[in-house]
Amino acid sequence: MLTSEPQIDQIFSRLLPRRIRYLPVLAYSTFFLLIGTPYTNSYGFAKNFLTVFSPKTKDPYELNQHGVKVTAVIVITLVSFVLYRYKTLALRLNRLFAVYKVLLISIGCIIAFTYSVEGISWSYPAKGWRIVTGFLAVLYAYQGWEIPFFVRVSFSRRKSEDWARV
Amino acid sequence: MAALHTVARPAQLNPVPDVRCSLVGVRWGWRHAMEMGDSPRPGGSPLRRCAPLSGPVRVKSAPTGPFHSGAVLPVPVCWLAAGTLILYLIPYFFSPVHRYLAILIFSEKKPPQLPLPISAPYFSPLAMRRASSSRPASSSGITQHNDAAPSRTTNSEDVDADQRQEPAPGGLTRFDVASFMINRMIGTGIFTNPPFVLWACGNQHLALWVWFTGGLFTLAWCVRPSEGRAAVSLTMIQPSFCVYVEYGMAWPHNGGDVLYVSWL
Questions:
Q1: What does the DSSP 8-state code read for residue B59?
Q2: B111 in contact with A at a CB cutoff of 8 Å?
Q3: Is A120 domain-assigned?
Q4: What is the mean pLDDT of chain A?
Q5: Domain boundary pick from A56, A84, A112
Q6: Using CB atoms, which residue from A1, A120, A164 is nearest to B245?
Q7: Looking at the whole model, is its pTM more than 0.95?
Q8: B positions 45-104 inside 8 Å of A (CB)
Q9: Which of B33, B133, B146, B221 to pair with A148, CA 20 to 30 A apart?
Q10: ipTM greater than 0.85
């Protein structure tokens, strides 16, 4: 039931024009469509894919850049189409990739700790901007870890208030 | 037999190493440097061979095959992109959603009533027929479904009807939801970024510290939305976890990032 007195957020929302209200959503979608990680990942996949089919090409920068772009666009299109049209297949792929990633990281960690060779150390000078760039890459890698936080809080607010404060 | 081309370059013209400084390509440059014989060893740099060039440079053999840089594709890329875009937009312009979204975004008028909610599969006639036969259209239109927060809803009957609606059979299970979250958390970054971070930091110790500091950085920005400074963190590359906890407690509804950005 709605109360007779408007809430504070409703009062402020009435002051905003409607066209500006949907501007953040469009800006957010544009950000993820244009400069998000899917495009870089699809480019990386396309380079791997084309390198497999051209064994004489060692350096991916020798590949045809138009071919790389076309392959990336086709992959993005196919994945989007499958996710949109075939829900059951998309759910199965979702489960499959989740299990695959967890297993891959687990097996990689086990192998790394088992076959780690001590005494190997190397270094070369790195400037400040390189470290900052690496830090940005680390922040990109941590993207997605905020989801369980707000999903857990959104599911049951009462039970998770204390957990959220912790 | 592969022929090697020899190119003479002065030292001043190519001070940049052969490793490409992009998020995608740097690992290839790294791998290329490793394959060329510059293995990491004590006191040595994997980029030493690629350091400022002086004298003749050995360029690798000319690439062959259908995908090398000199190959010409039979169809221009712009034609493929334009055709794909047109194929996607054709059903969009003939759907009632087009008119609805156009009025909703670019006009301040009340949008027309759609026969089904906005979540209905308007682009698939068969699925739309099934949806219309299984669930009739709501009497108040789709405006209630499109609003992000239920506090804006003016008709409480629709809210009650939505709450009474049982989940569809064959819906998402706990394993599906967990898989969604795992796939978002464990993306491609942990598989692709470590070589780049290692190259950027110079040694493995500093790289590990950068990874650890990045985790702390994402945890540390705990600002309450009531203070009005949390919007700054949303515009950054990686918002912090604590801010999302605050948002989730403030607006416990579906939508995630889009909902938070819309309501800020």
A1: E
A2: no
A3: no
A4: 76
A5: A84
A6: A164
A7: no
A8: 45-48, 60-61, 63-71, 73, 77, 80-81, 84, 104
A9: B146
A10: no
